[in-house]
């Protein structure tokens, strides 16, 4: 578990598509949110319990099955709600129906308890983050901006960008999201991606061949 700089960030690689699930926690209150639980609920539950955290919400950066697979079970386990951008409600339903095609098996469709919009605040104890709308990979793709870090889901990767050939994807929209919402952030902003290694805004600004 790393500290950045006041928020605890624990990454668990879960599910058959190696999704980065992040557990974000306030060290002062031990409140936490779970981001993109795309499988292996037992692993996520064990990490939360071992760290003695109290989840307050599950947030997904978008509605694809490899990011929502464990939401329903974690909702029951921790008694918390599920938040997602409203534009991805249809993506959730579609992805649940197609989950077996992606090697995800049968997953349970989670009920959405809160819809997120640009500028909405995420509260984790004494820590606050802001929702950025970063569509392109999906219509309702979001990024979670905190002090010094941003969780981008499948919008941006180290040296790459999210695919846009799936339902609701659009290349021009994705590039616009990255340029207008992410690249204005400072170069030293840590970028936590939906798959693969983390990076920084500066590294992607200067070295990402898609940008």
Quickly describe the structure:
It is built from 6 helices and 15 strands.
Structure description:
With 211 residues, the protein is α/β, with parallel strands linked by helices. It has one domain: Ribonuclease Z/Hydroxyacylglutathione hydrolase-like (Metallo-beta-lactamase, Chain A). It has six helices and 15 strands. A seven-stranded mixed β-sheet has the order 1-2-3-4-5-6-7, with helices on one face. A six-stranded mixed β-sheet has the order 8-9-10-11-14-15. The protein has a two-stranded antiparallel ribbon with strand order 12-13. A hairpin with a 4-residue loop joins strand 2 and strand 3. The longest helix is centred in the last third of the chain and has 12 residues. The mean pLDDT is 95.
Report how far the terminal alpha carbons are from each other. 31 Å
Percentage of β-strand residues: 25-35%
- Describe the biggest sheet? 7 strands, mixed
Order of strands, widest sheet: 1-2-3-4-5-6-7
Total domains? 1
Level-2 CATH architecture: 4-Layer Sandwich
Q: Please state the average pLDDT score.
A: 95
Instruction: Give the topology string: H per helix, E per strand.
Output: EEEEHEHHEHEEEEEEEHEEH
Give the structural class: alpha/beta
Task: Record the SSE blueprint.
Elements: E1 2-3, E2 8-14, E3 19-25, E4 31-35, H1 41-50, E5 54-59, H2 65-68, H3 71-78, E6 81-85, H4 89-98, E7 114-116, E8 121-124, E9 127-133, E10 142-146, E11 149-153, E12 156-157, E13 160-161, H5 171-182, E14 190-193, E15 199-200, H6 201-207
Parallel strand pairs: 4-5, 5-6, 6-7, 11-14
Antiparallel strand pairs: 1-2, 2-3, 3-4, 8-9, 9-10, 10-11, 12-13, 14-15
């Amino acid at each position: 578990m790393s500290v950045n700089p006041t928020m605890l960030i624990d990454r668990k690689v879960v599910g058959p598509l190696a999704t980065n699930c992040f557990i974000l926690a306030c060290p002062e209150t031990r409140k936490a949110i779970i981001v993109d639980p795309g499988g292996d609920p037992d692993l996520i539950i064990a990490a939360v319990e071992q760290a003695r955290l109290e989840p307050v919400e599950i947030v997904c950066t978008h509605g694809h099955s490899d990011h929502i697979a464990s939401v329903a079970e974690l909702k029951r386990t921790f008694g918390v709600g599920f938040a997602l951008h409203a534009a991805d409600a249809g993506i959730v339903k579609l992805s649940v129906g197609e989950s077996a095609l992606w090697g995800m098996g049968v997953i349970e469709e989670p009920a959405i308890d809160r819809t997120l919009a640009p500028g909405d605040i995420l509260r984790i104890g004494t820590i606050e983050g802001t929702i950025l709308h970063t569509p392109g990979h999906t219509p309702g793709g979001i990024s979670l901006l905190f002090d010094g870090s941003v969780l981008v889901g499948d919008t941006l990767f180290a040296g790459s960008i999210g695919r846009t050939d799936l339902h609701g994807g659009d290349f021009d929209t994705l590039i616009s999201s990255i340029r207008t919402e992410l690249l204005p952030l400072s170069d030293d902003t840590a970028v936590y991606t939906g798959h693969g290694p983390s990076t920084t805004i500066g590294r992607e600004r200067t070295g990402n061949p898609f940008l």
